[in-house]
Amino acid sequence: MTLHHVSFGDGVPVLALHGWTPDHRLMTGCLEPIFAGPSALPGYRRLYPDLPGMGKSPAGDIDSSDGIMAAVRAFIDEQIGDEPFVLLGESYGGYLARGLVAERPEQILGIGLICPVGELWHKDRTLPEHVVLRSEPGVSESLTEGEDFTELAVAQTAEALAAYRSDVAPGLAVADTAAMERIQKNWALSTAPESGPPYDGPSLIVCGRQDAVTGYADQYDLLPHYPRATYAVLDVAGHNLQLEQPALFGALIREWLQRLP
């Protein structure tokens, strides 16, 4: 299977894996302003695939996370080969990224995890209640019928809503929900993340203090496996923390990139 993807720039490969249901736009929306914005970071080739069943990548007969991982491996072999690369994963993409580190620790220069899944199954997660801590007049009134921005938003601002509409909502609208339901019945990877020795590359784990989807507490238990990890929990930030705290998110990503070899 060939995954649909977009790529930008030249240099060290950066593979960015989005979360469950959205598509690559979730990652380009928050990362491209860092790599190619006013204070651009040259020397990186950014690769943003759509995972199977999401965006423009068909699911085919994939029925498990192992199948998704096989497609990601094939994408790496095709687009990156044996070249060392930088790895980022958001939410479920963070779960896959942790699995890739277990398989290819020597090839991965550093791992960045954004609101990553700590405990795979929702029933096992330690989660705060959803709250709204920042709001602007007129934002909730401007939502169209069926628009679910407020379900997760902790900062209900015009800026966060605009980013949600450009980065998140388009992927949600085109996901193959039937295929995703099939895959989720076999959601656990056969080779568990962190099943190998500790990963000693520069790492970043950034979570939202008010993230009611993946939380922030379970990820703390990952720290022994990532001895060079910065673990940051951002206030006024839910599962879309990159939309709600973009400046702080960008600063953490930049600092992590500076630690890469």
Mean pLDDT over all positions: 97
Order of helices and strands: EEHEHEHEEHEHHEEHH
Q: Helical region count? A: 8
What's the total number of strands? 9
Regarding quaternary structure, what we see is single chain
* Span of the ends, CA to CA: 32 Å
Quote the beta fraction.
15-25%
Q: Which stretches of 5+ consecutive residues score pLDDT under 50?
A: none
Briefly characterize the structure.
The protein is of the alpha/beta class and 261 residues long.
Question: What does the secondary structure layout of this molecule look like, with pairings?
Answer:
Blueprint: E1 5-8, E2 12-17, H1 25-36, E3 44-49, H2 65-79, E4 85-90, H3 92-103, E5 108-114, E6 134-135, H4 149-152, E7 155-156, H5 158-174, H6 177-184, E8 203-208, E9 229-234, H7 241-244, H8 246-258
Parallel strand pairs: 2-3, 2-4, 4-5, 5-8, 6-7, 8-9
Antiparallel strand pairs: 1-3
